[in-house]
From TrEMBL:
This is Helix-turn-helix protein. Pfam families: DUF5753 (PF19054), HTH_31 (PF13560). GO terms for molecular function: DNA binding. InterPro entries: Cro/C1-type_HTH, DUF5753, Lambda_DNA-bd_dom_sf.
Amino acid sequence: MTSMEQSPTIRRRQLGVELRRLREEAGMTGPQLAARMEWDPGKVYRLEGGRQGIKPRELRELLRELGVTADGEVSHYAAMARDGKKPGWWSVYGQVSKTYDTYIGIETSANEIRCWEPLLVNGLLQTEAYARAVIRGTAPDLPTAEVERQIQLRLARQERLADVRLWMVIDESILHRIVGGAEVMKEQLSLLVNPPYRQVSLQVMPFAEGAHPGTRGGFTILTLADGTATYVETPAGEIYPEGQYADACNVAFGQLLARALSPDRSRHLIERALSDY
């Protein structure tokens, strides 16, 4: 993952920051602006969060509502909107959902990724065989070609990790949940013992800790040049918490780090689990 590369998601995010600034300078709330534009209120926040693009005509109308009419300024924002619609590097792997497209775009430009994983090894540290077993297990009706496409995209994301600080806390149950069989688990746990990337910190939350903030579900916090983005995957779809909800994930991750085993003790625990396969 080359942090110097700018993804279309980040261009949309930068445009969103500017639109939020213009709205606040105009003294309007998100719902007030949505009402003037005859939009669903959520559309304003999706635009300002960089999770949705905007058509040229809509952008011009929005800017006019925000008091921006100078040709130079309008052209500047229009160029940002066009850049935000360009395909990302991952487009060569086929179509992905809008939420996944947004996530990969943010991940591409992140300089630090913090993850709490309660059930499975995170995709960024999965072996090919483990990834195949995960995809087949969670989506058994997917055609083989689609399974392989998703695996290749996952592996491509991993190759871009060289300059990213990756900090993961995983639940101890992951070491014992047999995904794909014993041989697959041996390979996967061996990778966790010796991650292929320099800037990886891995900690295990032991069973002995009992209930803790992470029992409510997994999440990922991505640090970018202009702030952070929080990602939560649920059975109903992916969401991007903001405000107090994003802050709660950040606090929870700090608590998880404090309660998990140290990286050295975590590695020893993984090695013991590996010996059981």
